[in-house]
Amino acid sequence: MKFNKIVLVLCFAGILLSCKSYLDSTKSTTLLDITAETDEDKFVNLKNYSNDFIYDMKYATADNFLKEKVYPCDECFLRVKTVKSLLAANKNFIEKGFKIKLYDCYRPRAIQRKMWKIVPDANYVANPRRGSIHNKGGAVDITLIDSLGIELDMGTKFDFFGEEASHNYLNLNDTIIQNRKFLKEIMLQNNFSSFDSEWWHYNLNGSKADKVENLKWKCN
Ligand SMILES: [Zn+2]
């Protein structure tokens, strides 16, 4: 926090030619209360507000369609309002014996550019000039795990590029359709919208109007 303020002051004074601010990935020793956060647009680390999520941040490893690690480490930053809705959704899932597993959260514009450089195809990666809701801190890529920690069968892997990943593709067995429906219903009840071609992607309602940000994080 202090560091960011100092950077802002220096930027304001025009002392630096280029101003860079970083998100603080230092973890709090105790869980923080998201309801105490009044700035809804601020970026925070989900890990500071709950121990009830499972993290499988695909872009912090080479286990993704780019076959490259593009995030420095597996942090999950989101805007406060996104975290509030996601915590509420996870609470609903937990009450039913499930938990959210995260594949992707906020993505800085610089990393979007990096991904675009590897795969410059708008069918697979959002053009960094416009950015995506991930660049705005309002999107999450998720699935569900059961009480034994086993992922629910959603029919395809995360980032599977094909019609089978679509909510509209119904040539799947009943279990898969029910699992997708279960995920979608609770997310929609908690102020998120689904994305037709990707069963794993959810946008916080209204987040399209937010700014694309380029706040990177340093790893501890
Ligand atoms: Zn996504």
Automatic annotation (TrEMBL):
UniProt feature coiled coil, ranges: none
Cofactor(s) of this protein: Zn(2+)
Active site, renumbered: E198
InterPro entries in the cross-refs: A_A_dipeptidase, Zn_M74/Hedgehog-like
Catalytic activity: D-alanyl-D-alanine + H2O = 2 D-alanine
Gene Ontology terms, MF aspect: D-Ala-D-Ala dipeptidase activity; metallopeptidase activity; zinc ion binding
UniProt record, GO biological process: cell wall organization; proteolysis
Residue numbers marked as site, Transition state stabilizer: R107
PROSITE patterns registered for this protein in UniProt: PROKAR_LIPOPROTEIN
Secretion signal span: 1-23
A Pfam short name: Peptidase_M15
UniProt entry keywords in alphabetical sequence: Cell wall biogenesis/degradation, Dipeptidase, Hydrolase, Metal-binding, Metalloprotease, Protease, Signal, Zinc
Cofactor note text: Binds 1 zinc ion per subunit.
Entry EC no(s): 3.4.13.22
Binding site for Zn(2+): H134, D141, H201
Cited function: Catalyzes hydrolysis of the D-alanyl-D-alanine dipeptide.
Family statement drawn from the similarity comment of this UniProt entry: Belongs to the peptidase M15D family.
PANTHER family: D-ALANYL-D-ALANINE DIPEPTIDASE (PTHR43126)
Name of this chain's protein: D-alanyl-D-alanine dipeptidase
Source organism per UniProt: Flavobacterium dankookense
